[in-house]
Amino acid sequence: MAFGLSQIASQTAALTLDSAMSDSLKQASEAQASKIALDTENSILDGQMDSASKSLNSGQKAAKAIQF
Region entry Disordered: which residue ranges (predicted)? Predict the structure, then answer.
């Protein structure tokens, strides 16, 4: 069965759009994975900073309690 020019053009357009959607999906998933990793690192660092801050605060409170 021979295809007409419009059918060939339609198939070509569909392949082009499919490729574009595939690239877009890949970029979006890579960006999301990168964001998840960065959010995790930031969460860990925030927890470390919070622990350090609590440690400093308790040290300052202890120092104030010792003063006479």
Answer: 49-68
First to last CA, the chain: 101
pTM of the model: 0.58
- Mean pLDDT by groups of 10 residues along the chain of 68 residues: 87 98 98 95 86 80 71
Residue with tokens 């890949």: 26
Domain extents in the chain: 28-67
> How distant is the alpha carbon of residue 6 from its chain centre?
42
In 1-68, where do the E strands start and end?
A: none
What does the block give as tokens for 45?
A: 């660092």
Structure tokens at 14: 């569909």
